[in-house]
UniProtKB/TrEMBL annotation:
Occurrences of domain HTH lysR-type (ranges): 1-58
A GO term for molecular function: DNA-binding transcription factor activity
GO cellular component: cytosol
Family as reported in the entry's similarity comment: Belongs to the LysR transcriptional regulatory family.
Species per Swiss-Prot/TrEMBL record: Paenibacillus campinasensis
UniProt entry keywords in alphabetical sequence: DNA-binding, Transcription, Transcription regulation
UniProt name for this protein: LysR family transcriptional regulator
Database matches in Gene3D superfamilies: 3.40.190.290, Winged helix-like DNA-binding domain superfamily/Winged helix DNA-binding domain
């Protein structure tokens, strides 16, 4: 059994299509078919069910794929550790995040200080944030940056930013010039909200429940940019986190005195997996970078 066979098998298993897998691997389809056939011969069982020209991973294949994923992930960790020790790798950080908008400036600042380090970033839909746990387990990413806890015992999570949540108020609204409010004052107001299943929607619902109010949700969105643009257009109010250094928004931000509203942004990793020097450096950088942004903000200077 050879390493190349395992790599080829994983690609074919993922795509369940020999021709497409051969194209991705940049080899001839007959050569790929022979490689998979030799692997099945070595194992003594078929890994795919074949009917006409279609293939589908079978029970043996699914069981073997789990072990192959683990083996290739461990080998990649070993390669990166040896490269780190030998000083041959400048560093590539593999990162998954549901809140790229909150992380983008930190990424720019880190790259300016460490231009030799590269990033591979996967943006995850907030409603699918638990996919990041599987990505860490499979060794697909080194770190995750999230605006809500993943709540997994097998992971380490380090809070790096506790951002105050403000009420975003469009121009001309009766609350536009207020410095602060109690949340109960917006009973029945139209709100722009995240869709159900979004972690921020859950937090916002809990804050409204604590204030004893119901809000009129007039629009549900996926991304903070959409939420911001709809508030600016005057369609309703919204909950928006802010911290020092954020770009000035096209609407007012009013501090919520009661109940206190905050969002905690954290970096997560799997402790049993090897973290490259570059990944450790970036994790430490995030702690320092965000610690300088947690000073009190002016209501019209945050976003």
């Amino acid at each position: 059994m050879e390493l190349l066979q395992l790599q080829y098998f994983r690609t074919v298993a993922r795509m369940e299509h020999m021709t497409k897998a051969a194209k991705e691997l940049r080899i001839a389809q007959p050569a790929l078919s022979k490689t998979i056939a030799r692997l099945e011969e070595d194992l003594g069982v078929p890994l795919f069910d074949r009917q006409n020209r279609q293939i589908k991973l079978n029970e043996f294949g699914r069981a073997f794929l789990k072990s192959v994923d683990t083996a290739l992930s461990v080998l990649e960790e070993g390669r990166r550790e040896v490269a780190d020790l030998a000083g041959m790798e400048k560093g590539t950080i593999r990162l998954a995040t549901t809140v790229l908008n909150r992380l983008s400036k930190a990424l720019g600042a880190f790259r300016a200080a460490h231009p030799e380090v590269n990033f591979r970033i996967v943006q995850i839909a907030p409603g699918s944030m638990m996919d990041m746990v599987e990505m860490l387990e499979n060794g697909e990413v080194d770190l995750c940056f999230n605006g809500a806890s993943l709540e997994e015992e097998r992971l380490r999570e380090l809070p790096v930013l506790r951002a105050e949540v403000f009420l975003a108020v469009p121009s001309g609204h009766r609350l536009e010039e207020r410095d602060c409010i109690a949340l109960r004052e917006v009973e029945g107001e139209p709100f722009i909200e995240y869709k159900a299943g979004h972690p921020f929607r859950k937090m916002n619902d809990e804050n409204c429940e604590a204030a004893g109010i119901r809000r009129d949700v007039v629009c549900e969105v996926d991304e903070p940019e959409a939420l911001s643009s709809l508030v600016a257009a005057g369609l309703g109010l919204a909950f928006v986190p802010g911290c020092k250094g954020d770009d000035k928004p096209p609407y007012s931000l009013v501090r919520i005195e009661t109940p206190s509203c905050y969002r905690t942004f954290s970096v997560a990793w799997l402790e049993r997996r090897y973290l490259s020097k570059a990944a450790v450096l970036f994790r430490e950088f995030l702690v320092d970078y965000f610690s300088r942004l947690q000073e009190p903000v002016q209501r019209k200077d945050a976003m």
